[in-house]
Amino acid sequence: DAGVTQSPTHLIKTRGQQVTLRCSPKSGHDTVSWYQQALGQGPQFIFQYYEEEERQRGNFPDRFSGHQFPNYSSELNVNALLLGDSALYLCASSLGGTSRFYEQFFGPGTRLTVL
Amino acid sequence: GNSVTQMEGPVTLSEEAFLTINCTYTATGYPSLFWYVQYPGEGLQLLLKATKADDKGSNKGFEATYRKETTSFHLEKGSVQVSDSAVYFCALPSAGGYQKVTFGIGTKLQVIP
Question: In this structure, what DSSP letter does residue B15 have?
């Protein structure tokens, strides 16, 4: 059973460009969350997708957007890249019910460098 | 909202030394508590968890006890190894019924032979 997978592993972009990161959740999971981890910091929640809709959002600008597909995989899009967007982007999958908290399983991350 | 405060590192220990990494939390109710580990160049792995007060989570020789009296969830290991060198994050789910996790700043542990 494959765990959470993310692509690409590394990415280098220049300021102003746009980037798309991809995530496939663990088998059986229907919810995908995205986190940004700047160097030396803990992961910060960007947003979460459930049933193909954004269900919750952290304190990130509209330049950060996402999508979830019917097979539960997800994309994170960042427009107009800034130097400060350089970070490790982590995807986590889980079950999506709201009656209790379900453990999140993290992928290996995508390292984005903005020059 | 829910939050965690975690001791900052780095922590440098000799092999076989005793490890404690402090974590305190602020939360509505009694949520589950977690310790995640991040090895160099990798993503996050769940190390251990505790789902209610007085529970002890344990894994790979690491332990943490959920103490509601002191709102703490300190991570301990009796004898660290070089392979334990990593960054450790204390974490808890957000309030409100959604699947969001709030992380501490992380504590880098370096174990030297």
Answer: T
pLDDT per position as a tens digit, A76-96: 999 999 999 999 999 999 887
What value does the mean pLDDT take over residues A22-41?
94
Chain A residues interacting with chain B (CB cutoff of 8 angstroms): 6, 31, 33, 40-45, 48, 50, 55-56, 58, 88, 90, 92, 94-96, 98-99, 101-109
Closest Cβ–Cβ partner in A42, A95, A108 for B43: A108
* Under 8 Å between Cβ of A68 and A49: yes
Tokens of A67: 């999508």
Which amino acid is located at A2 in the chain?
Answer: A
Residue given tokens 């984005």 in the structure block: A112
Query: Which residues of chain A have a CB within 8 Å of the CB of B28?
Result: none
